[in-house]
């Protein structure tokens, strides 16, 4: 009968250096993913909301658009103030833009600042 060896252990029953390396690499990748994923997910969600508000610009004034964006910003807990939201309405289109940054802390020692820019340019449709 053939005996199958355990892939995680060497002949002495200890974990091998190669296995330890891969375990540490996977744990580090998961930790970085957990730290970086939420800001980027929030960015794409707020970007979609800003694009939707710009697409419906024919229904609202500039102040109403800023107000609706600020409601969503507060829901997401983003560090954005009303003065950071720029609404530029032209003859045939509207541009809504905002910029913000988020500091991500790694191991309570290192801080990485992530910068996000949202620019939504949409054609203004006629009121229906």
The total strand number stands at 3
**Unreliable stretches:** none
What is the beta-strand fraction?
A: 25-35%
Order of helices and strands: HHEEE
Number of helices: 2
The strands making up the biggest β-sheet line up spatially as 1-2-3
Biggest sheet statistics: 3 strands, antiparallel
**Which structural class do the helices and strands define?**
alpha+beta
Shape assignment: elongated
Through-space gap between termini: 80 Å
Rg (C-alpha, Å): 24 Å
- Give the proportion of residues in helices: 40-55%
The averaged pLDDT comes out at: 86
Structure, explained:
The chain has 128 residues and is α+β, with helices and mostly antiparallel strands. It has two helices and three strands. Strands 1-2-3 form a three-stranded antiparallel sheet, with helices on one face. Strand 2 (93-106) and strand 3 form a beta hairpin. Helix 1 (17-55) runs antiparallel to helix 2. The model has no long low-confidence stretch (mean pLDDT 86).
